[in-house]
Amino acid sequence: MEQEYTSTERLRGELAAARQRIATLEAALAAAGQESPGSCRTNVPANFYLTILNDAPALIWRAGRDAKCDWFNKTWLSFTGRALTQELGDGWAEGVHPDDIRRCLETYLHAFHSRQFFEVEYRLRHHSGAHRWILDIGCPFTEPDGAFGGYIGYCFDVTQRRQDEQFRRDVERIIRHDIKAPLNSLKTLALALFSDVQDAEIKPLLPRLHHAIGNVVNLVDSTEKILQIERGEYAPPAIRLDLRAVCRNTAATLAPQAEAGGVRILLPENGPETAPFCHGEEVLLETLLTNLVKNAVEASPPGAAVTVRPFSRPDAVGLVVHNQGTIPEAIRDVFFERGITSGKAGGTGLGTYSAAIIARAHGGRIDLTTSEAEGTTVTVTLPPAPRGLREDA
After folding, report:
1. What residues form DSSP beta bridges with 71?
2. Could you give phi then psi for residue 226, rounded to 5 degrees?
């Protein structure tokens, strides 16, 4: 059966509903057995609850205490086109795509030995011969006496969802590619105008225009790299970066927004410490800092200041952003998770999330302190650049 599901929440809801139906049936059987011993309970097979799952829309399997599968429902067998005897034990694994089998089994066995809920996506051979993507959600179950009984799993065909996601990524990649050409042309034009325009009011604005267009180009580049980070496909280049330059570029990018809100961005001079060099991708680290400083500017009242400074220690380098605003207590522990936002109409919570994953991708971390008395300080800590790295790509 090839029913498509597009929401992980919906799938978990289906799983919870099925588990509740099993629990209700088992409770009813137990009650019947207590009311009339030797009648209902003794005449009902121990696996009777499986009959209510046999025709469920999900592909369902069960494994015993030895981690070997001992039952599959009709929906699974209809999907694979194989007999129950072929699937029992480890036979089902014959249908898993060769590129996915190791990851699939490692996830399952790790969860099994630690008695944990798990979910994993892999390709399973359909009766048509094609491999289709399956979301497999497994959980341990207990016997009536409370002992561990094995695992039961609910699988859903998510091929269409994955195809839609791939199509969306392809379209976004095409848009990013196509939009960069006119943006670079605008950047070149702004630079040319700077040389030719003599108007005393317009000429000072052109460097800002040139910088703003360049920032949009960098943003387009960083979007693709952030997607790579989320998929675990990104490794920072071995390029030496001066965090002082990252601070200056970020301040220049956000200067118009800060000035419009009456907020100052301060870049205090460091003392005679070692220059703060890290290694990685300049466009990503500027994106990281831009997101943090933008949040700080938006959280600051008119007349306030946002302080941005790099630091260098023998074991680490990094960036510190401070403002006088305070983060609500309810979200402090999850501030850098996806979708967390507060006090901003239309806020998505993606800026702080992307900052956190960029820091992790560069081997670093982000820490937060906030209070009414001291305001909010966000500290990005990164590994120092190893000796001998080049300073440009």
Report:
1. 62
2. -65, -40
Longest dimension (CA), the chain: 102
Q: How confident is the chain (393 residues) per 10-residue block, as mean pLDDT? A: 49 63 60 45 55 85 93 94 95 94 93 92 94 93 86 92 76 59 62 65 66 69 78 86 91 86 88 77 89 90 93 92 90 81 58 89 93 92 82 54
List beta partners, residue 342: none
Answer for the pair 187, 210: CB distance below 8 angstroms, yes or no.
yes
> What are the Cα distances from residue 91, in Å, to 86, 113, 226, 310, 321?
6, 20, 39, 57, 56
Count, residues in the chain: 393
Helices (H), the chain: 8-35, 40-43, 74-80, 84-87, 101-114, 159-196, 206-230, 243-260, 282-298, 350-361
Integer Cα distance of 140 and 151 in angstroms = 4
The answer to whether 239 and 282 are in contact (CB under 8 A) is yes
Residue 66 corresponds to which amino acid?
D
